[in-house]
Amino acid sequence: MKKTNLMMMTSKEFVIGALILICSLLPYIHDAIPRETQAGISGYSSLRVFLYITLINVFGLVGWLIAYFEAKGKRYRFVMIVPIMNIVYQLFIYILNLKKTSFNDLNLKFLITFIVSVMVFIFYFMRKFKQSKESA
Fold first, then answer.
1. Are 46 and 38 in contact (CB under 8 A)?
2. Which of 26, 45, 86, 121 fits a disulfide with 55 by CB distance 3.0 to 4.6 angstroms?
3. 3-state secondary structure of 113
């Protein structure tokens, strides 16, 4: 029984370690693409540029998601939804090639961020108020 638990724990640690290693390599995957490749993708001059921009944002997203899940039960957890939403929105812009549209304007991004932030704050405090009413 102990041997099985040890093997499961070791394999879980191995998987987590491998995932961390893969995530740490995301910003550098574009270096594996030959420099001569000029096949543009999604409005970028080359595949390398697209991969670099996209994967650097995925790298940041993974970090924020880990922080969000690790902050379970903490008071500040709800604030982490804002940068997660910002990065997901930016990835949406990059992947769908909407860089030259109004979706990528500073005004719209700021407005969406502001609206989402206010909604998250309102939801959080409404929930806290409801919980304090139930406990009283």
1. yes
2. 26
3. helix
Say if CB 97 and CB 91 are below 8 A apart: no
**Strand extents, DSSP E, the chain:** none
The answer to whether residues 83 and 109 touch, using CB atoms and an 8 Å cutoff, is: no
Backbone region of residue 98 per phi and psi (left: phi > 0; alpha: psi in -120 to 50; beta: other values): alpha
User: End-to-end alpha-carbon separation of the chain, Å?
Assistant: 47
Q: CA 98: distance to chain centroid?
A: 19
Tokens of 91: 């990835």
DSSP assignments along 58-82, one per residue: HHHHHHHHHHHHHTTT-GGGGGGHH
Please count the other Cβ atoms lying within 10 Å of the Cβ belonging to residue 1: 5
Integer angstrom CA distances of residue 23 from 2, 95, 133: 31, 19, 43
Q: Is 87:64 a contact under the CB 8 Å cutoff?
A: yes
Structure tokens at 57: 């944002």
Q: In sequence order, which residues have a C-beta less than 8 Å from that of residue 3 and are 6 or more positions away?
A: none
Higher pLDDT among residues 129 and 108, named by residue: 129
The Cα–Cα gap between 44 and 48 comes to 9
More reliable by pLDDT, 91 or 136? 91
